[in-house]
């Protein structure tokens, strides 16, 4: 009995697709987050992960492997996006405080 190995590219496609879609979703939703219900935001994220799983499976990945690859890559991408946003927000706040202090 032979067992075919799954090409690593199938998992890379799953992870890259999910991560890119999650980043795009966050870029669209973040400025409008107060007008998007929480359920809609989470649904968009789940759909992005689902799209990555679909791409991975179409390229020969197992469903389990494609799911975890997509989930881990999209989770990491979103976590990094939130970290960058926090750093940028802190930087803007510090700039504003310094400008206010100079004006006093």
């Amino acid at each position: 009995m032979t067992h075919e190995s799954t090409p690593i590219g199938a998992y890379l496609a799953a992870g890259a697709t999910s991560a890119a879609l999650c980043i795009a979703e966050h870029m669209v939703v973040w400025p409008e987050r107060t007008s998007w219900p929480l359920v809609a935001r989470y649904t968009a994220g789940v759909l992005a992960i689902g799209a990555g799983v679909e791409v991975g499976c179409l390229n020969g990945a197992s469903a389990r492997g494609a799911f975890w690859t997509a989930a881990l890559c999209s989770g990491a991408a979103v976590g990094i996006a939130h970290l960058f946003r926090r750093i940028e927000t802190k930087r803007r706040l510090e700039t504003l405080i310094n400008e206010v202090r100079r004006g006093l």
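Residues 8-79 form one domain. DSSP finds three helices and no strands in the chain.
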